[in-house]
Each structure stands twice: as structure tokens, then as C-alpha cells.
Design goal:
Elements (H helix, E strand, L loop, with lengths): L7 H22 L2 E3 L2 E2 L7 H27 L6 H12 L1 H6 L2 H9 L5 H15 L4 H12 L14
Antiparallel strand pairs: 1-2
């Protein structure tokens, strides 16, 4: 004769108890979860960040001061300034996530200029929406001509 019948809930709890150690082991083995998430380190502690804060503030102040002086003198942007300005414009997570080729492309697009950044972001949105290159060009032309707002259904795949 069989033992007492197990309810669905009890079965799920038993399965979870069996799977939990496996999940815990897998999570402990993974250092980088992707999308900017990773295991916390000693560097992530608030106390450590507060100790580093004066250093980073000083470095940033010196960099922006040097940048302001170069702008007043109307000196052309150097490679470091272009990189920092582009990184600030697109965001650090995006900057870290892209390949070196994409970074170079971003630098040539001069994304620190607001109009270029807006155009680049729209292009990225259209790529994510899965639009063909031809349809993206059509939408770009319409926007350049100052045409009416493109309906949302035109921004999604058919």
C-alpha cells in the first residue's frame, strides 16, 4: 500500500528544498551576474566609499578645471576629454558594456553634443525596436524635415 498522498503544495516545497542548495551553490560560483550586477565586495561598503570620496572629488575638480581653461582658450578637445565627455553623455554602464569598436564609433559621432546624442539615442531605440535599416532611414528623414510625430505603431516591427 502507498504512503499518505502528498498535496501539490507539499510537493513543491519538497522540490524547492532539494533545489535550494543547488541554486545557492550556483549563485556562490557566479561573480558577475551581467547587466551591471555583481557580488558585493569590500569596495562597495559605504565606509570605504566615504574614505575615497575626497580623492575622487579632488581629481574631478582638477580635471574639470583643466577642461574649463582649455575651453576658454578655445583649444581643441584632446582624446581624453572626448572620451570622458562621451562616457558622461551615454552613461557609464553603456560605456562599459560596448566593445572598443563601438566606443570609437561613439567618439567619432561626438555624442557630447546634445543634438548628436539625441539622434544617437533615437537610432538605438529604433535598433532595439527591430526596425529594418530602410525603415530607420525613412523615419530619420521625416524627423529631419520636421515632419509630424511618427506614430508608435510605426516604431515597432510589423
Amino acid at each position: 500500500k502507498k504512503g499518505p498522498k502528498i498535496t501539490g503544495r507539499e510537493r513543491k516545497e519538497k522540490e524547492w528544498e532539494l533545489m535550494r542548495p543547488i541554486c545557492v551553490q550556483l549563485v556562490n560560483e557566479i561573480d558577475d551576474f551581467g547587466a551591471g550586477f555583481r557580488k558585493p565586495t569590500i569596495q562597495d561598503l559605504l565606509v570605504v566609499k566615504m574614505l575615497k570620496w575626497p580623492y575622487y572629488l579632488t581629481v574631478a575638480t582638477l580635471w574639470w578645471s583643466k577642461y574649463a581653461v582649455r575651453r576658454v582658450r578655445k583649444v581643441e578637445l584632446n582624446e581624453e576629454e572626448r572620451e570622458v565627455l562621451t562616457k558622461n553623455a551615454v552613461g557609464e554602464v553603456t560605456w562599459i558594456a560596448v566593445s572598443d569598436e563601438e566606443r570609437q564609433k561613439m567618439l567619432t559621432l561626438q555624442l557630447w553634443v546634445t543634438d548628436n546624442l539625441v539622434e544617437w539615442r533615437e537610432e538605438q531605440e529604433m535598433k532595439l525596436a527591430g526596425l529594418s535599416a530602410n525603415r530607420r532611414k525613412q523615419i530619420k528623414k521625416i524627423r529631419k524635415r520636421g515632419g509630424a510625430e511618427i506614430p508608435d505603431e510605426d516604431l515597432h516591427m510589423d
